[in-house]
Amino acid sequence: MRTFILLALVAACSAVVYKMETKKSENLRAKLIQTGRYQEFLAKQHESRINLNTGSQPFLDYYDDFYLGNITLGTPAQQVTIVLDTGSSNLWVIDAACKTQACNGYPDSGYTKHKFNTTASTTYVSESKKFSIQYGSGSCSGHLAKDTLVFGGLTVANQEFGVANHLAEVFGYQPVDGILGLGWPSLAVDKVTPPMQNVLSQLDQPIFTVWLDRKLNISQGGLGGLITYGATDSVNCDSTITYVPLTAKTYWQFNIDAFAIGTYSESKSQSSISDTGTSWVGAPASILSAIVKQTKATFDWTNELYTVDCATSSSLPDLIFTIGGTKYNVQAVEYVLDLQLGGGKCAITFFSMGSGSFGPQWILGDTFIRQYCNVYDIGQARIGFAKAHHSF
Ligand SMILES: *[C@@H]1O[C@H](CO)[C@@H](O)[C@H](O)[C@H]1NC(C)=O
Ligand SMILES: *[C@@H]1O[C@H](CO)[C@@H](O)[C@H](O)[C@H]1NC(C)=O
Ligand SMILES: *[C@@H]1O[C@H](CO)[C@@H](O)[C@H](O)[C@H]1NC(C)=O
């Protein structure tokens, strides 16, 4: 049988690997601070937090660096730029019929949104069912639909997704047209099957690997990162990958056995998630206090973040996470960020998760993922970490 031989050949040569380059946006916070619009942005963000209900995705924080990817939807293909987010599980894009400032993008955000024109696609199927997703920084809502999705060279016919016709104001500042969630199906709003689940049968292995390059200046060209679907990334990541089992199949959730910085250490097991959609690291309130003390950081009430002196920041202690018996160090070069705040001050990239008992205690966002490639193993419900190689 011809097809059989062909399949066998493909298997023997192995590895049909699907790769998707990601690009890092300009740092949004730095840009807003420099153009004097950060206070207005913070106020909008506070407004949308007041409306925060107890939705399934309470902790996401999009307001900084974005690792973006291009996907297409529809026939003929319409390209949109989305955030690749392991902290949520739905795909949504903006309806071309939505004409609000948030849907169009604020004129001074320097980004014009690519909206999805449903009537221009011959494969588009509208659904009457509504969707609404609450993220940490704001909500979006609209209705569900189905169409052909292409991402990372993979094609899904009839992918169900959200067509948003209402976006919270904060989205108007962000250089993105939507979000593609890479979390587990049980986290998906309206039980929509996430794109990753729909491509598993096309992959050699039911995994994907995320590599993020170090704080890349995009105007210098090059990649911001790479997502490899169906394989590990032997070019950008160390070959030693250490796995730990997931403790839930919602977020990519696992336990941190211990944490240390400088003379502080905490050896209580705490739950954590790996979230590419969060720029910084969310830490339990008590641990954040310890980090602040160990780095001698002070709180900047105007910009609502902790700062240290840029000049001496390279001598700050490593963060040391113990996960599954292995120690993972994150150096100051990764967690100190120059937002050009003035006065020789740099931000440390942490925020407080509060001390509530709901949800994970830690979020390991891009600050952590830049230092360690994350291998998201759907088949074996585990996550792996490998040292990341960087272009500089
Ligand atoms: C998406 O495609 C556009 C042009 O087609 C390109 O300028 C942009 O850099 C791409 N973005 C990403 C994240 O790959
Ligand atoms: C959407 O596409 C249709 C058909 O190509 C076109 O007539 C319409 O003007 C487009 N709508 C928008 C809002 O761009
Ligand atoms: C990025 O690199 C370009 C070219 O080297 C430089 O002109 C620009 O100032 C850099 N931007 C930042 C934010 O470092």
TrEMBL record:
It is found in: Secreted. Coiled coil: none annotated. The active site is at 85, 275. It comes from the Eukaryota. InterPro entries: Aspartic_peptidase_A1, Aspartic_peptidase_AS, Pepsin-like_dom, PEPTIDASE_A1, Peptidase_aspartic_dom_sf. Residues 67-386 form the Peptidase A1 domain. Residues 1-15 form the signal peptide. One of its GO terms (molecular function) is aspartic-type endopeptidase activity. Keywords: Aspartyl protease, Disulfide bond, Glycoprotein, Hydrolase, Protease, Secreted, Signal. GO terms for biological process: proteolysis. GO terms for cellular component: extracellular region; lysosome. Belongs to the peptidase A1 family. This is Peptidase A1 domain-containing protein. It comes from Caenorhabditis angaria.
